């Protein structure tokens, strides 16, 4: 493998955060939609965010995306030369 374990972990860590922010809005019901709002809170505040479920989905999706990216890199599909040629940038 062309990169070290720490580089792979750093890439996975950044990918995990990106996927977390993508999964946060799914399944959220606001207090306004639910019809019950607590005094002093915003009506758009979530009733139950289900963070544990979202963290599990984030980890699974990140692992799948990372595995596909590592496979593509090892297969030569994500090399710097290939990507620069696809974007029309001379090396």
Provide structural commentary.
The chain is mostly helical. It has one domain (5-87). It contains four helices and no strands. It has helices spanning 5-23, 31-34, 51-74, 80-87. It is elongated, with a radius of gyration of 20 Å. The model has no long low-confidence stretch (mean pLDDT 88).
Can you give the mean pLDDT?
Answer: 88
Strand count, sense and barrel status of the largest sheet are: none
Number of strands: 0
Q: β content, as a range?
A: under 5%
**Unreliable segments of 5+ consecutive residues:** none
What coarse outline follows from CA principal-axis ratios?
Answer: elongated
C-alpha termini separation: 23 Å
User: What is the succession of H and E elements?
Assistant: HHHH
**Structural domain tally:** 1
Portion in helices:
55-70%
Output the radius of gyration: 20 Å
Please work out how many helical segments DSSP would assign: 4
The class by helix and strand makeup works out as mainly alpha
């Amino acid at each position: 493998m062309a990169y070290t374990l720490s580089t792979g972990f750093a890439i996975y860590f950044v990918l995990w955060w990106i996927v977390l922010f993508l999964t946060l809005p799914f399944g959220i019901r606001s207090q306004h939609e639910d019809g019950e709002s607590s005094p002093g809170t915003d009506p758009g505040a979530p009733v139950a965010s289900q963070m544990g479920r979202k963290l599990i989905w984030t980890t699974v999706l990140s692992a799948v995306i990372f595995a596909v990216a590592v496979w593509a890199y090892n297969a030569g599909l994500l090399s710097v030369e290939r990507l620069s040629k696809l974007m029309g940038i001379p090396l």
